Amino acid sequence: MPTSLSITEVTSISDFMAFVEKKTQIRWYRGAGDSDHDLKPSLYRHLSKTTDEEFNDLELEVISRFRQRSIPYLLAPLSDDALNTLFLMQHFKVPTRLLDWTENPYVALYFALTTARSHLNGPDVVHDCDAAIWVLDPAAWNSKAVDFTPPVGIVSPPNNEVLNSYLPSKDITYRKDEPVGLYGMYNSPRIVAQRGTFCLFGKSRKPMETTYIDKGYPQDSLEKLLIPKDQINGLLKSLMRIGITDSVVYPDLDGLALEIRREFGFFGTYA
């Protein structure tokens, strides 16, 4: 039977938690402010690169530039560990092959709701498109993506042989094609607060949802929750009421500033 993408509509916090609580195995979550936004990392969104070799050269050049010029801004010397460098780059939004996920479903819901495109109609915030939350079963995904016996489960860096073929390298002959799910290194307060996890892409630049269907991944190892645009404001109010606020997700002054701006009506209002 062909693999199909299960889509569940969510219109309330109770809908969302009912879905989450039915899952008996570990799931990761990723919020998207636009339900049409595909699951592809920032490096592979470059507009002019087209071949494996071009993307690999681009990655090595970006890493080299980051390592050369980040030194004055770092509190400690940058390690030689390639994966740690990728995590740090991802944290500061430098393009990488990493795609962010979270173990915390509320954090994913926060990102889905707060990044949804919107405009003001008088004092009202009106959203322009539906939002979504992607749900990943990382162990089931990895069992298909990485052909190991026994199955690899969720990969835990840094010293894991599964990752050897995924790391930046001049020679990508033996790099695996499909993304692998791995735990992140907790190298910043934000990644701790957001319970960050990642998928590290291989050579394939296809979005994960395309790979999931085309390659016949285990059914429901990837799912999608759809949030109608006219429900976003109500869900965001509910999320804030239960304590998932900007300063919880961003535990620093930037997060506090976002929270104050939202609470005092600069992003619309919530009770």
Quick structural summary:
The chain is α+β, with helices and mostly antiparallel strands and 271 residues long. Helix content is 34%, strand content 16%. The protein has one domain (6-263).
Give a description of the structure:
- 32% of the residues are buried.
- 34% of the residues lie in helices and 16% in strands.
- A four-stranded mixed sheet has the order 1-9-6-2. A three-stranded antiparallel sheet has the order 3-8-7. A two-stranded antiparallel sheet has the order 4-5.
- It has one domain (6-263).
- With 271 residues, the protein is α+β, with helices and mostly antiparallel strands.
- The model has no long low-confidence stretch (mean pLDDT 91).
- The radius of gyration is 19 Å and the shape is globular.
- It has helices at residues 13-21, 52-69, 82-91, 105-114, 138-145, 189-193, 208-214, 232-241, 246-249, 253-263, and strands at residues 6-9, 28-32, 98-102, 118-121, 124-127, 131-136, 180-183, 196-200, 222-227.
- It starts with 5 loop residues before the first strand and ends in an 8-residue tail after the last helix.
